Amino acid sequence: MIELGNTIPSVSVTVVTPEGQDVVSAEQLFAGKKAVLFAVPGAFTPTCSAHHLPGFVVLADDFKAKGVDIIACISVNDAFVMRAWGEQQNAEAITMLADGGAALTKAMGLEMETGDFGGVRSRRYAMVLEDGVVKQLFIEEPKQFEVSKAEAVLATL
């Protein structure tokens, strides 16, 4: 499992953009930036839609004021789902990342098997990256939502 001081793996993710989508390596995406990356088990799911993503949307300016260059939300969903969810959540300030095959999630050791819920999904977490290096890591225990919420992460910056 990824740990403090590790560099984010150089694995491709799909960045959802207003123009479409771009495939880039996570290492390249976060290079030279202070970033907050948070993961949800699934777009349009209850806690993710009611609390996790909205918390970062509401506090985006506060994160920027703390020197965060990019706030990214990743899920093991395809780019079309991530685009629709971002639009529905008015998440213009958040970079939506699709990890459709769970390549980055697995490379970081943060996958979980959910069976009939959706198969392989990501554990819920947040991390603070500086130039692609993990400086802070907040991994939730199963079915929990405390340490990775926007308010908790912001309080550590």
Automatic annotation (TrEMBL):
EC number: 1.11.1.27
A GO BP annotation: hydrogen peroxide catabolic process
Active-site residues (renumbered): 48 (cysteine sulfenic acid (-soh) intermediate)
Alphabetized InterPro entries for the sequence: PRX5-like, Redoxin, Thioredoxin-like_sf, Thioredoxin_domain
Molecular function in Gene Ontology: thioredoxin peroxidase activity
Enzyme class of the recorded protein, top EC level: oxidoreductase
Reactions mediated catalytically: a hydroperoxide + 2 glutathione = an alcohol + glutathione disulfide + H2O
Domain Thioredoxin: 2-157
Annotated Pfam families: Redoxin (PF08534)
Entry GO CC: cytoplasm
Keywords: Antioxidant, Oxidoreductase, Peroxidase, Redox-active center
Protein family: Belongs to the peroxiredoxin family. Prx5 subfamily.
Function: Thiol-specific peroxidase that catalyzes the reduction of hydrogen peroxide and organic hydroperoxides to water and alcohols, respectively. Plays a role in cell protection against oxidative stress by detoxifying peroxides.
Protein name per its UniProtKB record: Glutathione-dependent peroxiredoxin
Species, as recorded: Neptunomonas marina
Species lineage: Bacteria, Pseudomonadati, Pseudomonadota, Gammaproteobacteria, Oceanospirillales
